[in-house]
Predict the structure of Histidine kinase.
Amino acid sequence: MLWPMIAIALGFVGIAVLGVLAVRVFAEVRRLSRQVGATSERIQRAAEDLERAAAPLAASAHWRETE
């Protein structure tokens, strides 16, 4: 009777460990998704800034070609 009780206890401990690890993975995935979202917003803002900065240069290059 001792061995089945030990097996059940070890099974429970194993499932508990997997549960704790699953919670940690879930927390890290949420943190990573927030970072990816923030980074994509920063990239979008940088692309918009670059487009605004390049517009006058492109206009002057087009003006020079038409002369």
Notes: The helical segments are 2-66. The chain has a mean pLDDT of 91.
